[in-house]
Amino acid sequence: MTSLLDAIHADPWAQDFLDLASLNARASGAVEAAIEAVHQKARATPQSLRSTSLVILGPPGAGKTHLFARLRRRVGPRAVFVHVRPLVHAEMNARFLLGEVVRQLGFPTSQGMPQASALVGSLLGYLGGVGTEFPSAVLAEYADLPADVREARLDAELERLFAIWPEVDESYLRRLLAVPFATPATGRALLTWLSGRDCDVAQLQRIGAMASLGEEHAFAALRTLAAVAALGSPLVIVFDQLENLIDAEGAGPRLRAYAHLAAECVDALRGTVVVHLALDSEWQRGIEPAFNLSQRSRIVMGRELLELPRAAEREELLRRFYERIPGAREPFPWPLGERRLARLRSSAGITPRMLLIELRRALDGEGDDAAPEDVSSAKQPGQRTATAVAPEPEPRDLDGEWQSQLQEARELLQRAGEERQPLDAARLADGLFACAPFLPQLGLRAGGKPPAQLLLQRNGGSEAVALVQESHPRSAGALLVKLASLSTAMPVVAVRERAREFPPTWKETLRKQAALLETGRARWVDLEPEDCVRLLALAALLQAARSGDVSDAAGTQVTEAEVVAWARGALDIAEWPITRALQGASEATTVAPLEDEDERAIPSVAPASASSPPSTDPLPPPALEARPAPQVTGSALVILRRLRVASFERLVREVGRVEPGSTRATIQAELEAAGERVRWFGRSIVFYRSGP
Amino acid sequence: MASARKTPAAPVLDETRVQAELWALRRRLKEDGAVKRSSLKPKALAARLLPALEAEGFETSGAWLRCPLGVQLERALAHGAVLSRKALAAQVRGASAAELQRAVAEAERTGQLRRILRGKVEAWAASSAAVLSGAELQRLRAAVAALDKALAQALRKQGTSLLLSDVEQALAEARQLLPTRAEPSRSNGDEALRSVVAAVGAARDQHSGLAFVPDIVRRLLPAMPAAVAREMLLEAARRELVELRPEGGLGRLTAEDLVLCPPGPAHTHLSWARLLAGGQS
Hints:
The complex is a heterodimer.
Chain A: H1 25-44, E1 52-58, H2 64-75, E2 80-84, H3 94-105, H4 115-128, H5 135-144, H6 147-164, H7 170-178, H8 184-194, H9 201-207, H10 218-232, E3 235-239, H11 253-268, E4 273-279, H12 280-287, H13 293-299, E5 302-305, H14 311-323, H15 338-346, H16 352-363, H17 372-377, H18 384-387, H19 399-418, H20 425-434, E6 443-446, E7 454-458, E8 461-467, H21 473-487, E9 492-497, H22 507-518, E10 522-527, H23 529-546, H24 560-570, H25 577-583, H26 636-643, E11 645-647, H27 648-658, H28 664-673, E12 678-681, E13 685-688
Parallel strand pairs in A: 1-4, 1-5, 2-3, 3-4, 8-9, 9-10
Antiparallel strand pairs in A: 6-7, 7-8, 11-13, 12-13
Chain B: H1 15-32, E1 34-36, H2 43-55, E2 59-61, E3 64-66, H3 69-76, E4 82-84, H4 85-91, H5 97-110, E5 113-118, E6 121-126, H6 134-156, H7 164-177, H8 186-203, E7 210-212, H9 213-220, H10 226-238, E8 242-246, H11 255-260, E9 270-275, H12 277-280
Antiparallel strand pairs in B: 1-3, 2-3, 4-6, 5-6, 7-9, 8-9
């Protein structure tokens, strides 16, 4: 279970949810009204369906991502929700958006059914004239039919759909309608194909396709998807953390590409609700001024500001947080106290996140640090100027935040492994790009032209960095040929997950790989699983930092500069195997060309310059894994028994006072050894069970 | 062949333009306190504007056209501000140091300003500030001196002390000598709040409804010092007339803007404001 008190930053897909309906009712009401308008128009005049675009703005911690979670719960299967965070290294395009939309069709609605099923069930309900309210009942009826009868009925429904919109893509639609009735493996293959990602041979065979959906079909696929969804469960595409589109020098190509894509979605997709979430200050001064008039009129059809909670709402929110404290010792306003509560009610600029942080700090036994405005209000007005200057930044403890990002990335990697899918090349490229500020000796920058994603400047020259994540031997081979051609113009670094090494049966692909490396102007870098995790976590951490969504161990918001400074000191990024591989040619591999295509792809001993198979020498394990096992010290359990419930951070502090030699690892080990005596709520609150 | 330089013909000034410029200039003078005379162009226009504004009571001095110094001093010290010489000079525009010194001395003489000591620093307050008269200073000094003497004797004679009740009584007597503080005028505070709310309304972006706090404070500067404006913004937020919002944190605020923003919780700066229903009514 993830405790709400553990989650300072909202999870858009959280199942455990705490909401205060009156807060920002206007903003969520605007989106709900837009969805309802699509429903009504779909019933009356579907041909006249158009898309709506709303901008919702607020400061960090005001509840932008929470709004997404609220809408998911309220609207349930009556809409398909898609949460898109922008790419950092490259421009967002239709293919990326299609990938995100279809990937999230696999996510559950608040009622538990996958969004793809809700979409198809609502559509079939609409076409069958039974309404869109009960998609699961409609799907159950179809599922009970014999396969051939079901096929015939689906064909008939398709014909009715073509009568409404003759322009939809039939092959795309057939596969979309098949998703809820497919076996899990076929369902995954269908979603992979629908998302425009590269399908492997087995997946293509399962779904009876000759090839993956090409990039040129991405926007047509989006149009089909949006049109059919509009009849039952319209698409709600929510672009979040848009401030990450702003480059250091202002409005760059990424921001322009986003504006173009968003305006095109509004123009060309039917019945879609597009929502743009951003920091109010950045939207005002950095994002909207970059739009031309045409884009502005399409993107900013409506604008809502997220409200900060008023005094009464603050107290109500705190009460609701309090109700989630396991084993609360005293009645509310414990653990805050009356004075602290009064301050939180009256201070200006308090966000819901700040309230949660204050409650956590109070729970940890930390005293009330009066807000600067309260402290300074005792001074004379003339003295206030000095207090307006930001205090000297202190080193922040972001280890908890980093571990949380690592955990999320590991879960993503595990899910991809279970589904036999490669990680998204664009997100991995984001991760590599995120390393750039920490590798001053390497000029790693965006702007690589396809097939390369990034440009690496090293030893006075440039190299094109390309992620080779293709699943099908033909696509991988085609990419390798393109890279070989590119290598005549500039050296190439090809990067691929080690977990997705080319199998020996891909002889042609291996031959092309060897040909690429034989040029002498290409390096091959295998990406270790732990490196994948780190890259994804680093990219996510830096994006969250830009959006003001990173907090230190004390719960205080940390600026982007502080996060970068912490990462520079704590993560030793230059020593990660992937960054070391990018820095030096010695760790990369060149492969000997295969003599005979029919030969098994196990190369013989290669000369010094051209060694064997398409993989690197094993790299040393990361330093994180080389640590000795922690020693259990013995005080943590005694202290936890006294505290009964505490955050792990507080426990570490308390034990540290008694045993200065203790570490987080020793305390963690001791708690784990205590078995059922110790329970966890999420990853940060720990609880001592006194019962038998 | 030598070219003959032609003097450009003086532009024709129609009355509508002169009136529009006059209106804009009055507004600038009200907001900024002073404008450079060289900014009034063309010369023909300046020749029309300056006599008209002087006739209205605005002053010209050297390179500046300004609000009368007395008015600027009054505005700077409105709403209970107490300013040192340096801070006062920063609030007054269009005057040399000597002119300002003369104006301050004149204002002191006429009772418009009060010169006070805060520690060792001389400062000025408006005539409405609660201060002690000469006689009150004398009486208080005598009362405190008696207590000071008793304290010194007790310390000198080893082993002796004073009864707490005696000290309390002496302090109470001294306190009784203080003049009763006039209750701050509620109407003055309300008026300031109203002007703050009006400034938020005037500075807000029509599309988003947000107003940039440094812009609000700058609008209020002619009427009150920045520190008071910030304080009044916080008060308006406490009364739920205005919502103050923290800056996103991407480092867009300049140092000049930063000092005009009230500090918020968790080291934030409150850089945006929005009118609430209470402030709109």
